[in-house]
Amino acid sequence: MPIADKIQKGITSPTYASRLAAESLTLQNQYGPEKIFDLSVSNPVLEPPPEFVKELQTFVDARQSGTHRYMENAGYSANRVMVAEQLKRETGLNFSKDEVIMTCGSSGALNVVFRGLFNPGEELISFAPFYPEYAPYVENYGGICKIIPAGPDFAPDLKAMETAVTPKTKAVIINSPNNPTGLICSQETLKGISDVLTRKGAEYQTTIYAISDDTYCRLVFDGVKCPRLLNYYANTIALTSYSGELSISGERIGYAVVHPDCQDGKDVFGALVYANRTLGFVNCPALMQNVIRRLPDTSMYLKDYQRKRNYLFGKLVGMGYKVVKPAGGFFMLVKSPLKDDAAFVSELKKHLILAVPGGEFQAPGYFRISFCVEDKTLEGAMNGFQKALASVK
Amino acid sequence: MPIADKIQKGITSPTYASRLAAESLTLQNQYGPEKIFDLSVSNPVLEPPPEFVKELQTFVDARQSGTHRYMENAGYSANRVMVAEQLKRETGLNFSKDEVIMTCGSSGALNVVFRGLFNPGEELISFAPFYPEYAPYVENYGGICKIIPAGPDFAPDLKAMETAVTPKTKAVIINSPNNPTGLICSQETLKGISDVLTRKGAEYQTTIYAISDDTYCRLVFDGVKCPRLLNYYANTIALTSYSGELSISGERIGYAVVHPDCQDGKDVFGALVYANRTLGFVNCPALMQNVIRRLPDTSMYLKDYQRKRNYLFGKLVGMGYKVVKPAGGFFMLVKSPLKDDAAFVSELKKHLILAVPGGEFQAPGYFRISFCVEDKTLEGAMNGFQKALASVK
């Protein structure tokens, strides 16, 4: 085999995302871009907020010397202090910059965490439905992704988790608010996860880490505060990104943090920094760190997303769709009126609406739509949603 | 072990680079930054050229919509077309954008290439002296770094290479101009490498790739054109970075290319794109791609570096040091007046000069100094170099 075996498999079956991107382009060329309602995207189409633009211009114009060079692999101290202070306020935990590493977004953070922790053959437990890239990420380092099927309400199934934990379990990952459901984990669930990990860790004499994918934790609606796993389990590594909050997904900035009371926490942090260096990230891009540091609040789009969610949810429920109401993020999971979710996604495509079959996220019988798109795209899709539903009844 | 075994080893023995950075800081605090002559750096201290600054400001002020979003994992088409056109001019080979992937610098490119090609247990052949990060990079994916000792003139030892190639050899890596020597591979050497790989590949019925680390190939002095492995061996993947050429090492931009006639070239390219996505880079940072694309020429500092090299080389030789004259890049390898290079590096430190022992690069008995520093740093170090040499005679 000329290339790596595991990758041969990956490239011969292109991801749904890449197939959809290609289809979207074909349809746009055929019908005109304004006629296509692409709700398959995970790439926010809102422009970055004026506050970001202003800081970017101010910083670039100031021409401070030395600002495009390498810095410490963990990132600028000032950024790490800022993150530590924010997390102190949000969690009450005693974070310092020595637990914060700036990364190339959440995806970079996840790879750094997996590389830092996993030996080949060790297991990651993930609750369905979940972001499908977790599996190839952990497999990069010989880790194994073990999937717990979704319960009826999409809450993590703690009994199934208890059975799934083995002496080979290195970590459990949760994503709250979740992609694709938008649901947040309750305090009871987080406490339950902590209990299981503590009990099983003691039984097997291992440290089982929790990885808290907090990518959407600052995009939570209705004034709700998203409970954080960090507040329930000390052996937690949390990570997030500025991509969604600021609509800058292409710029690659986010961070990971190690709980201040994590067992062997200094080694874990050292491992993340080592992985950030040796995976070739070297450091999170300098210019973006310099800009983000000057932005006190990064949740400027919360109200917009809440409005978009309300519109989409209200309309679809009104038509007769069964919709999982997202508490945060910018994705919505809808029950497919056909048992075969891919077949209904094809039906939607006839009405020039692009969605992602739930099977992609281990949620068969559902499909995922995004509301990180312009209002006119959501509004324009409503007619097609109505017709598609009527056509399969 | 709480963290990955291989990383435990890595973090308990910090790199020379990180120890030096810490020492440099301590010395600067103790004596004042202007008294310290830090020639251990690989982080160019020149500011980015005015052309870069102008394009950055122009681009940021123009506020084109959609420019901070994800793009294709391989990067913007326009950047890839630009790179293909440049490589066509430089090599005469028929490159298209479909062989070009934009990466997070050379380090990102190397990881993407190693992840794309290597199965656990497969071997990378590297000629000493070499950039020490090659080993942890390939080990991320279970690859094994096999080192060919340096010959007396630091040219790749082709006989030793022929013996080292086994059925497990996935690739050979060369770096020309080389870090730490600054030497470029001759056409004869490149042809020799090609002959060995072709012969051994046929014998073992394998495809052996060549990885051409061209990080410094546009920083070559005295009007010399650096011969490119791409012109001698079709199964070549080449990579480089804009870090050194533009003094923007913290911004993480570079690229990798697959030779247009590479065997299974489409699969190899697909593997690189897949690896760029699943290693969590996702894409090379958007803003930097948008700026670089508008810069027709990125070798604006060639004359400065040539002047710095001439000064440093002339002065040290004049004092009686034996120096390998670099043909390119911004590093210089100097024979240690003491057999123990680390001991002489300690001697230099007494004179507030920081250098890197050659042992770090598999070049024992030498030390490496950088000339990507300000003139006053080079000039200020000369007295110390003189005294250090006198003190060990």
Explain how this protein is built.
- In chain A, the strands form 3 sheets. A 7-stranded mixed beta sheet of chain A has the order 2-8-7-6-5-3-4, with helices on both faces. In chain A, strands 9-10-13-12 form a 4-stranded antiparallel beta sheet.
- Helices cover 42% and strands 14% of the residues of chain A.
- With 393 residues, the first copy, chain A, is of the alpha/beta class.
- The radius of gyration of chain A is 21 Å and the shape is globular.
- At the A-B interface, helix 1, helix 3, helix 5, helix 10 and helix 11 of A face helix 1, helix 3, helix 5, helix 10 and helix 11 of B.
Quick recap:
The structure is a homodimer of 393-residue chains. With 393 residues, chain A is α/β, with parallel strands linked by helices.
